[in-house]
Each structure stands twice: as C-alpha cells, then as structure tokens.
Amino acid sequence: MKDYDIIHHVKGESKFIDDINVPDGTLYASVFYSPHAHGKIRSLDISYAAAIKGVKGIITYKDIPGINQIGGIVPDEPLLAEDEVHFIGMPVAIVVAETKFQSREAVKNIKIEIDPFEIITDPREAFEKGKLIIPPRVFSRGDTDTAWKDCDIIVEGDCETGGQEHLYLETQGSIAVPMEGGSVKIISSTQGPTTVQKTAAGVLGIPMNKIEVEVLRLGGGFGGKEDQATAWAVMAALAAVKLNRPVKLVLSRHEDIIMTGKRNPYTSDFKIGLTSEGKIIAFEATYFQNAGASADLSPAILDRTLFHCTNSYYIPHVKATGYSCRTNLPSNTAFRGFGGPQGKFVIECAIYKAALKMRKNASEIQRINLLKEGDEFHFGQKAVNVHTENTWKLAEEKFQPEKITERIRKFNSENKNFKKGFAFMPICFGIAFTNTRMNQANALVNIYLDGSISFSTGAVEMGQGVNSKIKNVISKVFNVTQNIIRNEPTNTTRSANTSPTAASSGADLNCNAVYRACNIILERLKRSALEEIGQSDMSKIEIKDGIIHFDKKKTGLSWSELIERTNFKRISLSAHAHYATPGLHFDRETNKGNPFAYHVYGTGIIEATVDCLRGIYKIDSVRVVHDFGNSLDPVIDLGQAEGAIIQGLGWMTIEEIIYNKDGKLLTDLLSTYKVPDIHFAPEEMEIIFHGEPNAAGIFQSKAVGEPPLMYGIAAYFAIRNAVSEFTGRNDFPYSSPITPEKVLMYLYGRTVSGDFLTADKKTALTN
Ligand code: MTE
Ligand code: MOS
C-alpha cells in the first residue's frame, strides 16, 4: 500500500503550521501594514498599541540587527518599511503579544500618517515613466525586421492576462524558537527553506549555521511560497530573537490575500507574419510585466516568458522583448508555470488573430507550425524527443475534432441562446530552473538497525506527492516495500544549500540525489551480503522482497538480518549524495544556451458552452494527450494534471484580480474573488498518458507539476469562439480572464462608437 500524504490529510492527521504544538511561553505576532500604496511616512505612533494588555513588543525596522533587506534577485525589498511605503499591505511593524487576539487589537491601534506620492498600478504607465526593475531583456533569433517582407500576411495586436491568487489552503505562517547561543529554529510553511535561512541570517546579522529551518509540509504553495514565505518566517525569527521567546506568526486569509503578491499580470504587444499557407515566418512581441513594488522573482519569471514565447512552434525569426515594470502593488511572484503561461497566451492570441484574418481555423496554423525533432528553439537549444506532432495526432485520433466541429455546428444552428465553441492548445514547457546554478539537490538516506529507512532531502511536500515519488525510488533501488520507508521533515541541517521546490523539478532533482545515496548504501550492502554467504560475484547478488538472492536463488539472509550484520561489521548504513542536472548552460549576455534538461509536451482540446442571455458559461470538456514519460506514479501524475488544468481554467476564466487606481485590492475576499469549485469543473475530463520513456528523467519519468496548467488557455479561445458564434463578430479585446461579466459586455455591451465597456470602465463604476 502506498503511503500518499493525502491519506493523512483526509484523516485529519497531517500537521500544518497551525497544528504544531508550540512551546510554553509562545507569543503571537500580527503585522501592521501600510494602508497607502505610495508615500512618505510622516509619523508612526505605536504608543496606543503598546499600551494594550498583553503586548510584549512592537518591532520596526529600527530593531533589525542585520540588514533590512529580503530581496532575492535584486536587493530592493525591505522587510519593514523605513521612510517610504510602496504598496497597500507593505509591512511596517510587527506586534507581539501574549495572544493572537491581543496582537490583532494592538495592530488596529497603530497610527500612521503618510504623505502621498503618485500611485502607478499599470505596467505600461510604469514603463513610460522609466520604472523598470531590471534593464530590458531581449531574446531573438534571425531578423524580424527584414523577414516581414517575406510574409503574405502580417497581423498586429495587443493582449493581456490577469493575475491569480494562489489560494493555498494553508495561509502563510511560521513559528520561530530561540535556541541556545543566539541561534534560532524556524518552522516555516515555505517552498524554499534555504531562502528563509539565508535571508534570516542577513536580517538577524548572524551566520547561517545559527539558523535551522524546518518544513514538514505545506497546505499548498503553487509558487506563492517560493519567495513569499520568507518575510513571515524572518519576522517571526526577528521577534523571537528580540524578545527571547518563541513567536508564532500566521496570516489570516484576508491578511494573506492583501499582503502577498500573485501571478504577474502582463499586457503585451504582438506582430506575427505568415505565408498564405499559414507557416509562421516571424514573430515579435513586447511583454510588459506587472512586477509590483519590488523584484521578488519577477526577473526570472520574465525570462521564462521569453523562453516560452513561441510555445510549441518553430518560428525562424523571433524577437521577444520583456520589461519588468515596477508598480505600487504587492510584489507579484511565482505561480505554477512561472511566466510560461503568460508568454504562451500571447503567441496563441497572435495565431488566433491571424487565423481570423486568413479565414482559417486557428488549429490549422497551430498544427503546421509544430516543432519537429531537432528544431532549434530561439534561445539555441535543440529540441529532442519532441512530442508535439505525435501528441497532436493522437489527440486527433482519440478526440476526433471533425466530429466535435460537426456536433458543435449542429448545436449552434439549433440553439439561439446557447452557443458552443472549442479550441486546441499544444504545450511545450522546459524543465529545469533557468538559473543553471539552482539545478542541484542533495539527500541523506539512513537505514536503521531494524531495517527501516528514512530519508531527508531539500524537497518540500506541498500536495504534489514528491515524497511518495522518492519512496518509490528507494523501494525500487533496495527492492523493499514502501511501508518501511519514511520521510523526515525537510531541514536545512540535513539538506543544506538547496533550491526551493519549484520549476516542476523537485521530484527530478531530489529523486536523483536520493537514488545516488541509495546506490552508495546498496553497494555496501551487496558486499556485506556476499561476505555473509561466502560468495564474491557482485553481479549475482540481489535483494528481492526483503530476501537476499544469489544467482536468482533465495539465500537464508533477510533484509533485516543483513542490516544487522552490516552494522555489526561497522559498515555505514547512511549516505549523503548530491545531484546536479548534467548538460545545462546559459549565457545571459547572448541569451543562448541549453537551459533545460528536457521539455514536456502535449495537446489539449477544450469545449465550452456560453449562455448568451446571461453571459455565463460552462466548460464542457477537457481532453488532453499529455507527455508524462514513464510515470513514476500514475495516480499522482494524473492528480497533478487534473489540478493544474483546473487552475489553468480558473486563471483564464473566472479568477479576476482587481486593484483600483489607488492600488487597493477590490477582490480581497472569496466573495469577490471566484475560484473554480466542483460545480465549475468540466463535466468530462479525459487525460491520455502519452508514456514515451524520457532518457533525461529518473527511471525514464518526466516532471509534471506545472505544464498541464497551460492547456487551460484553450478555454479562453473556446469561450471566445462561442461568443462570436452568437454575435457574428470577433473583434473584441484579447483580455483574459474572460469572466462572465466580460462575456456579457462582448455580447451586448457595444457602445455607439463600437467600443466595448471594458474591465477598466467597469472598475471605475464599482469604485
Ligand atoms: N500540487 C499541489 N497539490 N500543491 C502545490 O502547491 N505546486 C505546483 C506543482 N503542483 C503544487 C502542486 C508547482 S508551482 C510546482 S513548481 C510543482 O508542483 C513543485 O513540485 P515538483 O517540483 O515536485 O513537481
Ligand atoms: Mo512553481 S511556480 O515553480 O513553485
């Protein structure tokens, strides 16, 4: 029986930050944040708050013994505001009290006066005013300038994608406990324990070896805890060290939604040139990324947008320019896909718009431009083991798009107020951190005297089943049942200097490190076993079902006896190993290289029905052929694909984040921010495993966490197609999410001048 983490969740046995028994004397922290999006702090009065019963301390930047800096890529993010504030939700002070209630009460009694500065929320406006986080990034190949003259058709346009709230079930939180000699233990709900450790060391002004970070599991991360779990962990640590008491800091849902960043919204310009047959010759795009107030991970996210700007297509001439724009919003951050989805949406809009002009189906253009084996991506990497055309063909075979077309045509002709549409979405997603350095991991494997096994890695379990996959690897190497294998919490003292669990690479990297550690021990065990049975041929010794076999025959030696004997002979039953993904390099000056270990491919088809009286819609079906490799665990992989797809659907359709012009989040509750639920989920979801072995993956497997999210993009075009069936026009803006409100505008909201009442105007109305 496999020990999936979810089994413990369902039984209520799993422990999250809020379930951990805290030590006696623990204090509770709440955060006071800026109520204004931009300005200079004229005064901060904490005297009323300090007088509240139970309050033990109020911490501002002045109390920071080290540096007031938590920026990872760019040092542009203070832990606590000094003299300026840059977004609503920016932490200004930490209030610590005997109870959570008291610290909350005290926060309400802090008074701040702010002299306002100009507030920018729109990335294009930030760009015009020169507010860039990093210098522009340009990825290019060929020469788009001269290529336009070879094109029969040229189409230009702009489009936008919205943000997305992570809505992990467990909000951000941490418990910090002061230990002896000025050291501190931090329990954090983070995807990046080393990030927390390193940042805390800087803020506290102590060496990293005085900080231990531990993570049991997360109630979801989705990228939102890759960098943004750090601040809360560091605040708890700062308070704990300052007051010499354990401190717990857990955000409420409302605080979490207001204070933390989301998926980066983008607004982009595109230009695409094709032959009359539909072959794409040139593609140019400019991406304005809404980074928010500080860099956070936005520069790396922008790079992934540029890597994936051509999605699954081969395009000879490409020029992609990215601007990371600083605005007065919470710093936006990693979210499943990490800029890839934002990039893919733009090329899909360009293809769709070109198809309209050419009176073709978008799928015809998509299909004839698919990458082929050996094609080079615009950043110089060769595409190998490509599964674009074969997943597309299999999708056609299995899902019969001609029949779908026929069925939809019939439905649309018979129904006046309901219209259906469908769309294809091929995907291609690079696996590896694009920062080559991050592609390393380490693992510690212990076999105990009774034969039971534990392992410790840098991998953080957040629902994606990484520990189950690791158990699978260990049980395969030693050929023992998974019941005797247990994961230790992720801890920086056992696995040091690790990358966050992200980029869908957690399983690949950590399984490989564990595989190496296991093989070191296996080698010792085999030698030990040979000694025990008086043999010498290493190639004939095997462990099978807990019994040592020699020359395919059982010996009298069991697994637990072998372990006992090996320790008796004073041979180590533990091993630590390191893994670095081979073959990766990337030159950030030329933007060429081999940044990815491999790519994940697939083809999806989504069908939707729009209720053209009310503007609401239903996703009827999602059908995909996905490139899973030789799945390490089909149950987990299927769950990952389904979850990612639903998240992708939500991002493209009903999840809408709205800030007003003052930088205030209007969708700060679940009554105003809609996420998919079981009723929203498509009636039919068919996921076909395209299981070609992947030579670059552990046991021929493939990473799975992020790529399937991008199938969701087809929902946007399916709905768009249905709307245009009703209106007979297809000239409305390329703006996602395509919420029911927008659909209603597209159906009926045309003004006399032919414009649409767009989201912007709607926001003005709701303010
Ligand atoms: N699945 C669940 N249930 N919860 C999560 O938080 N995060 C996703 C994905 N799947 C996530 C998830 C993201 S953003 C990534 S990068 C990967 O899991 C990380 O895990 P992996 O590298 O082990 O695939
Ligand atoms: Mo995932 S967005 O790389 O944490």
Describe the fold and architecture.
By secondary structure, the protein is of the alpha+beta class. The protein contains 20 helices and 30 strands. The strands form 7 sheets. An 8-stranded mixed β-sheet has the order 3-5-1-12-9-10-11-20, with helices on both faces. It has a 6-stranded mixed β-sheet with strand order 7-15-14-13-8-30. It has a 4-stranded mixed β-sheet with strand order 16-27-28-29, sandwiched between helices. Strand 22 and strand 23 form a beta hairpin. The protein is globular, with a radius of gyration of 27 Å. 55% of the residues are buried. The C terminus is likely disordered. Ligand MTE binds next to helix 15 and helix 17.
Write out the distinct hetero groups bound to the structure: ligand MTE, dioxothiomolybdenum(VI) ion
For the largest beta-sheet, the strand count, sense and barrel status come to: 8 strands, mixed
- Distance N to C terminus: 55 Å
Strand order of the largest sheet: 3-5-1-12-9-10-11-20
Strand residues, percent: 25-35%
Shape: globular
